Each structure stands twice: as structure tokens, then as C-alpha cells.
Amino acid sequence: MSDVEVIRARALAGTPHGFLGRRGGVSTGVTAGLNVGLGSDDDPAAVAENRRLATDAVLPGARLCTVYQVHSAEAVSVPAAYDDAQRPHADALVTDRPGLLLGILTADCAPVLLADREAGVVGAAHAGWKGALGGITDAAIVAMETLGARRDRIVAAIGPCIARASYEVDDCFARRFAEADPENERFFADAREGHHRFDLEAYVAHRLADAGIGRVEALGLDTYADEARFYSYRRATHHGEPSYGRQIALIAVV
Hints:
- The chain is an alpha+beta fold.
- The protein has a single domain (6-163, 199-252), classed as CNF1/YfiH-like putative cysteine hydrolases (4-Layer Sandwich).
- Helices cover 23% and strands 24% of the residues.
- The protein is built from six helices and 14 strands.
- It has helices at residues 44-58, 129-134, 136-145, 171-180, 200-210, 233-238, and strands at 6-7, 17-20, 63-65, 75-77, 92-95, 100-106, 110-116, 121-127, 155-158, 168-170, 188-190, 195-198, 215-218, 247-252.
- The strands form three sheets. It has a six-stranded mixed sheet with strand order 4-5-8-7-9-13.
- The mean pLDDT is 97.
């Protein structure tokens, strides 16, 4: 077992956080590495140990809080720790309570970490294409504001996700975005006939900036292309693998 890799964003310097990949965990087989997915086809004991390792790598002694992700635009506030079995159905969570480590799981979708250090409020959002289009980052920002954050002070970082070069979609997919806003065409590049390549990271960055977030850092790491470092649902599907792992992004109040 190698050490857990913690990828940090300059925008979030001074705030306990990290984007973790698959390096440093105890899982084996197709989910080898730091698989933290409770719903994955993996040994539950290995997943529990990986979640402990992930927590200790970012904020030892903290209580990890995640959500049951459903590709929604629902954000929840976390006032106290809860057991994994009590995870609310949502795709973003926010808190102003020290000692709680917010976690978002991904395997191609974009993990977004947010912080207003002055207010002592942080958030984490799971932005797949459906949640991103539906406004999950907007919901996270509003939820942070209810705890005293101000969007002009919030900084955000977008972690490892599937890149445009790896993300081929069809005409129907592209039309959903064009119908929401004709200017969304700029997030698509031509591919083979009837298909396009979608820039999820750039779209999420646009939604954050459009919501008034002044500093947005995109790490530019492609989950699909880097098999040694990250899990990828689409890559596992293309390879015909029976299961896939999930990585985690973590953030806590200072």
C-alpha cells in the first residue's frame, strides 16, 4: 500500500481540503486503491478503511459526512455528524461546524469544493452533467449564504473529472444545454457525426463565475485518461469491467 495522495488547490490554501484519487488505499481487483464508494461492488471493510485513510489524510480526528448522491440540485446543511446509514439524498452539503469533514464522491463527475474563510463556512458539490445543468453549484452557494457566507468572498476549486477530450456525447445531450442557454454551445467541440465532446469542467467553472464567485480554480485533471491515478465510470464501462471505484473530495472549516 502506498501513501494516500492528496491533491490541493491554491485557491483553498489555509482551508483543510483535498481531492483524492485511487492511490494509497487497501481495495483490490478492479477497484484497487482508495475506493470510498459505499455502493460499489467492493469489500465493505476495505471501503470503510479507505474512508478512514482519506479522512486521516486531510483532517485526522474529523467526522466524515457524505450524502447519498442522486444527480440532483439539492444542497443540505450539516449541523452535526451522522452515520453513513443516515446520509441525506442530495448532491451538495455545507457546514459552519469545525470537526466535520464534508465529502463528495465522484468517478468522472466534477467535485467542487467551496469556502468562505472569513465566515467560517465551507461546501462540497457533486456536479455531474445533470446536476451542473440543474444548478447544483448555485444551490450550494445559496446554502452557504444561509450560514453567513457571502458569494463575493467564496472561492471554489474544481477537482479531477472527465475532460472534454474523453467525454463524447450525442446530439440529444448537446441540445439539452443549448435549450437551457444557446451560449452553452461553446462548451462543445465537434466529434464524429452526430456526436460532440463536452467540457464539463469549463461548464461548471462558468456556472460558478456566473453565480458571482470571483475566484474559481480548475485543476485540469482527466479522470478517464489517468487510470493509475483516478477511477472512471466511463472508462470502466468502455473496458467492460464489472464494477468501478469512487474517489473523494474533502473540505472542512478551519
